[in-house]
Design brief:
11 strands, Bactericidal permeability-increasing protein, domain 1, nine-stranded antiparallel sheet, Arc Repressor Mutant, subunit A, alpha+beta, 171 residues
Length: 171
């Protein structure tokens, strides 16, 4: 039997508290630079590029800011590069988002894919597959929500298990 819950019933108070606490970090110059870079050129982004993007800052301060963003689960640093900056992934995922200018980016999960349109304040096109039945999902999302071609598409939200930092959801 399919259990249907409201958004309020699905709220994880611990996760909400962590995201509220990390809100100021999402406004930093370093994080904003990372997001712009993912939008403009994709990723991954070498750490040296980010350090050199802030010539008025000490390299140690930029590296500390990057480490804090990684600790806050806003980015992932792997092998000296930022390969995830929520909502974007440099690693191919099942969620392909075509931006208004035609460039394609990968989203970390379904929720992230849907959030890119309001984040950028313009229309995006999302392509994925149902993880249950493999049906192709191909629709538009606008800053105010999914377009009419998304009729019938549902977002499944999996319960996050202990020890996992990153959320995984699917369409």
């Amino acid at each position: 039997m399919l259990e249907i819950k409201t958004a309020g019933e699905l709220v994880d108070p611990e996760l909400e508290a962590r995201w509220t606490a990390s809100r100021p970090a999402r406004q930093t110059d370093v994080f904003q630079r990372i997001l712009r870079r993912f939008v403009e050129a994709g990723g991954p982004i070498p750490i040296e590029d980010l350090v050199s993007a802030f010539p008025d800052h000490f390299a140690e301060a930029v590296n500390d800011a990057l480490a804090a963003l990684d600790d806050d689960d806003l980015i992932r640093i792997r092998d000296g590069r930022v390969d995830i900056a929520y909502p974007f992934s440099a690693v191919p995922t099942a969620f392909v988002v075509r931006l208004a200018e035609g460039q394609e980016r990968y989203a970390c999960c379904a929720i992230d894919a849907l959030g890119i349109a309001p984040m950028l304040s313009h229309r995006v096109h999302i392509r994925s597959r149902c993880h249950h039945c493999e049906i192709v999902l191909d629709f538009t999302a606008w800053p105010h929500g999914p377009g009419p071609d998304a009729d019938g598409v549902m977002v499944w939200i999996g319960k996050q298990t202990g020890g996992k930092r990153r959320v995984a959801t699917s369409l």
